[in-house]
Structures are given as structure tokens and as C-alpha cells.
Amino acid sequence: MSIKKLALFIFLFSVFACSSPYRAWQKQVNQKVKSHLAEKPSLPTPPNTVWIIDNLFMDKTEVVNLSYLEYLHYMGEDSSYQYYQNQIPTNGVWMDKEVPFLDSVKLSLSLGYLEYEGYRFLPVVGVSHQQAKNYCKWRSEIATQNFVSTREKKYRFEYRLPTEKEWEKSALSFIDTLNQENLKYGFDTSIISPSIFNLSQVLNKKRGDSTQIPPTAYAYAEPTTLLGLHHTIGNVAEMIEEEGIAKGGSWIHVPLQSTINERIRYRYPTSWLGFRCICEVKEIEN
Asked: What is the C-alpha to C-alpha distance for residues 239 and 138, in angstroms, rounded to an integer?
């Protein structure tokens, strides 16, 4: 075998070896989504959500910078200047001591993380619990106004932060047949290793380490859970209805801090904390 053919064989083999576990997992995802949606009630699906149970739908991804910038645009047009200012994320969270970057890099992220075009589909951070709730309230109004139903029935979309129980069940895809190890993350860990999640591999990273910059990842990155949710584990930890508690771990947390049942405490906005919404679809009578 020539060197060129050998090199091509090694390349193709490596591609196949790397991708086959994902194909196996994606097959499970497709089967689960198909069987799950067969039980979905006759309700409209809010944009960028997946059906969970009853009249509940959850965001496929964490709320991204682009979506939050849209919210700020509306607030700038339709609310007082003071209220608008109060909704702006705290970009200074990138300057916190726990962020393991050089000061020059931290300053760059502080100045441009939210606005930079290349970061549009990264999860918004620096948001307080109250700001997240305000965003949910606005999104409920705007989504309901803009939803055009072709049916005789009319519906209202009511977004909010999920409860801890709702978040955990959604992350687990309501599967109770996974083994104990898989229950930690909601993935079949014989196929999808926790090492691929956007998590830290070491505690207390040192300044200027090899973490990718920005440390957050594209919100729609694969793999998804069995119900099609992205980044339930890793990327950014997610606020829930109970203030001060986040779920799922982030780029700064190690896997054992990021299991589905684990609680991550916070007191204020941080560079590793974001959120995703849950939506109740309710029929409007008369």
C-alpha cells in the first residue's frame, strides 16, 4: 500500500471511528423524539422549543446574546431609560478573580462579549435572576402578539424559568431506564462521554491557561439530549425559578459538579451563569 493510500485509509478510519458513536446516539435521539412527539397534545410549538410534557415546552438552547440584544432593543424603544439601563447584563463579570484569563483577555471579553457579531449565538451571561424573569415576561408578550394561529383556537405563550424538578426531568428526557451512571448526565455514557461537554477538566484553573476564548460554546452544538436539548450539561450553568440555585454546570465546573441532581449556588451574575426558558402554552377562551 502506498503512503498516500495509507494516509487516506488512516484519515477515513479516524473519521469513521470518531463519528460512529455520534451516529449511534443520534439514532437513539431520532427514535426517542419520534415516539415522544406521537404523544404531543394538539398545541402550537413556541419557536425554538421542544415539547416536554402536558402544555410545557422548553428552549432547545440557553438564551443567546442575539435574543437578549433583541430584548434590550425593545426595552430601549418602549420603556424608560432607567429601566432599560437596569436590564443590561453586567459585562464586568469577566473581570472576576475566578475567571482564569490574563487581564487583557478579560478586559476584551468585558467590552465585547455581548455585542460582538461573532458571539451572537453564545449564551448570554452576566444576567441577574430578576433580569432573566423580566426577559421571560417580555418574551411572553412579544411571542403571543406575533404568533399567528391558523386554527380557530387562540393561545398564549407564557415563558418563565423552570422549577428545579422541571429542569431535571427535561434534562433526563423523562427516561427512567438509564443505568445509574447515565442518570448523572442524561446521556448514555457508553456512547457520549462527559469529556465532550463544555466543562472544565480541573478545579481552580490558573491565569492564562489553555481554556478556549471565549470559553462558552455555540449554543446549538451537538450532541443533544434524547429530547433534543443542547448544553443541558456544561457551557453555562442555568438559573431556575428558585433564586440562588443553578443547574447543569458550566465551562468553569468539573463533571462531578455538573450532574443533573447537583445544585450550584450563586449570589450574583457571573461569567458562567445563564438561563433557558420554559413555556406554558395556554388556550385563550373567547
From this structure: 17
DSSP letter assigned to residue 257 = G
At 228 the three-state DSSP class reads coil
Q: How far apart are CA 209 and CA 215, in angstroms?
A: 11
Q: Tell me: the pLDDT tens digits for 108-140?
A: 999 999 999 999 999 999 999 999 999 999 999
Count other Cβ atoms within 10 Å, centred on residue 282. Answer: 14
Q: Beta 237-239 vs 273-275: how paired, if at all?
A: parallel
Asked if 149 contacts 44 with a C-beta cutoff of 8 angstroms, the reply is yes
Rounded distance, CA 147 to CA 267, Å? 36
List pLDDT tens digits, range 226-278.
899 999 999 999 999 999 999 999 999 999 999 999 999 999 999 999 999 99
Q: Looking at this protein, which amino acid is placed at residue 267?
A: R
The overall longest dimension of the chain from CA atoms, in Å, is 76
Main-chain phi, psi angles of 49, to 5 degrees: -125, 165
Cα–Cα distance for residue pair 122/131, rounded to 1 Å: 18
Pull the grid cell for residue 28: 437513539
d(CA 232, CA 3): 44
| Rounded-to-integer distance, Cα 94 and Cα 112, Å | 11
Return the closest-CA partner of residue 184 out of 234, 227, 221, 238. 234
Distances (CA, A) of 260 to 112, 176, 185, 202, 268: 31, 13, 6, 19, 22
